[in-house]
Design a protein that fits this description.
337 residues, globular, mainly alpha, 0% strand
Length: 337
């Protein structure tokens, strides 16, 4: 139990901070493999859930969320991208990116709640949740006020909001730190570390003007956080199928579907058919947001039961887990969105 928690905790902290450090230190040309795994591959691994009979049955019983909505997102985005001129379609990307980065922060909130459960720190308070959410919203506003950080050639006329967002971010982080120190339940270093990562996740956005230093690190960090916990879930007990086979299936799904997503992600300037594939790629990413938001919603009985059995060292034995866990995120797209 303690070993499993240690792998998750150390992996989450090191992968998050390491993603920041590597993307800041390396030139963009050296980041291709890192971003491929942290974006397209991590989105693709969500499809692994379809290989688990009990999860597949759960999703098929709720076709609206897990089948119809994803298909509608993929088809709708493909039609829009293929039919609209590129200069018009690009104006839809800020809304997509705002959803993407909010998905990132929802995953951070889930990780904080998960660490509180795993390390006996009690449930996250409403104030602690609001502080993490507010920090994420401030980071999103800052990104939209400087679209060049997202490699978008748009003038959204929101530059005046950047200092406002910076102040709001500082207030949210300060409030979160105060609430952490004032907890009735002693937080402990493990929970404090994950909660601090959640609060400071968007800090590079306010420190750097390079898209890769400001955005690529947090994008990769989000993806690697997700890949780690997906590997732990896939490596959990699975009747009738060995742990190695389950992990191999996760790896192959991630690499094969991730390669297809990665190829489609570069077709935004192609002919209409190519742009339709680019739209389908964006739709697949949004489908990932929708599916994960349901399967990691621990206030619902099935996700709580399934994930507690797979991750007993994180979710078992400390009472009912917090109401949300990694949403996941999308993750996914590189700094260009």
């Amino acid at each position: 139990m303690r070993r499993g928690r240690g792998i998750w905790l150390s992996g989450t902290v090191l992968l998050t901070l390491g993603s920041y450090a590597v993307t800041i230190a390396l030139a963009p040309s050296a980041l291709g493999g890192l971003l491929f795994l942290g974006t397209s591959v991590h989105v693709a691994t969500t499809a692994w859930f379809w290989s688990v009979p009990e999860v597949r049955a759960h999703m098929l019983a709720r076709r609206g969320r897990y089948v119809l909505a994803p298909l509608a997102l993929v088809a709708g985005a493909a039609v829009l991208a293929g039919a609209m001129p590129p200069r018009a379609f690009v104006w839809l990307l800020p809304a997509f990116l705002a959803w993407q980065f909010f998905h990132f922060q929802k995953q951070n909130l889930g990780l904080a709640a998960l660490s509180a459960t795993a390390y006996g720190a009690g449930r996250l308070g409403n104030g602690e949740r609001r502080a993490v959410t507010a920090a994420g919203v401030a980071g999103i506003v800052a990104l939209l006020s400087r679209p060049e950080l997202l490699q978008l050639t748009l003038d959204l006329r929101l530059r005046f909001l950047f200092p406002v967002a910076a102040v709001a971010y500082a207030v949210a982080v300060a409030a979160g730190c105060v609430l952490l120190l004032r907890r009735r339940t002693r937080p402990g270093p493990a929970f404090a570390a994950v909660y601090a990562l959640s609060l400071f996740f968007f800090l590079p956005v306010f420190l750097f003007t390079s898209p890769y230093a400001a955005v690529a690190g947090l994008t990769a960090a989000h993806g690697y956080q997700y890949l780690l916990i997906m590997a732990l879930v896939a490596g959990g007990e699975r009747p009738g199928l060995s742990r190695l086979v389950s992990l191999a299936l996760l790896l192959n799904i991630g690499l094969l579907l991730g390669t297809a997503l990665n190829l489609a992600s570069h077709l935004h300037d192609a002919a209409p058919a190519g742009r339709a594939l680019y739209g389908a790629y964006l739709g697949a990413v949004m489908a990932h947001f929708v599916v994960d938001a349901g399967l990691w919603r621990l206030r619902d009985e099935f996700p709580r039961r399934f994930l507690t059995r797979r991750l007993p060292y994180l979710l078992g034995g400390t009472g009912r887990p917090g109401p949300s866990a990694p949403a996941a995120a999308a993750d996914r797209v590189g700094p260009r969105g």
